[in-house]
TrEMBL record:
Name of the featured protein: DUF2627 domain-containing protein
Positions of transmembrane segments: 50-74
Domain of life: Bacteria
Composition bias, Basic and acidic residues: 98-111
Pfam families referenced in this protein's UniProt entry, alphabetically: DUF2627
Keywords of this entry: Membrane, Transmembrane, Transmembrane helix
Taxonomic lineage: Bacteria, Bacillati, Bacillota, Bacilli, Bacillales
Length: 111
């Protein structure tokens, strides 16, 4: 039962940002369509654009898509599915000093 509740919560954590992103997209679309419909109306001299509605929709859309994209990115990083440019940088081990190589060459040449 505990595993079922955990999975339900995990699904909700992905569905809620998805719904927010879809609603934000609809707000942006509606504000653009309303503006273009007002341009075609001959009785309106200067149509106004619903900036608050459009910016609110853009924030919802970007937040939802960003959350889902980040979740997928970190899940793929955990499972090592990412390209090499997205993997964490691992420093190279230091190279051995060249002085020990020259000493071994001198020892071989003297023999």
């Amino acid at each position: 039962m505990k595993l079922l509740i955990q999975r339900l919560i995990a699904i909700l954590l992905l569905v809620i940002p998805g719904i927010a992103a879809a609603y934000g997209f609809l707000l942006m679309k509606d504000s653009l369509y309303d503006y273009f419909a007002k341009i075609g109306d001959a009785s309106i001299n200067a149509p106004d654009f619903a900036w608050i509605k459009f910016i609110g929709g853009a924030i919802l859309f970007l937040a939802g898509v960003g959350f889902i994209g980040g979740w997928i990115f970190f899940r793929d990083r955990k499972h090592n599915y990412l390209s090499s440019r997205f993997r964490p940088k691992v420093p190279r081990p230091p190279r051995p000093s060249r002085s020990s190589d020259k000493e071994s060459e001198n020892a071989h040449s003297d023999s």
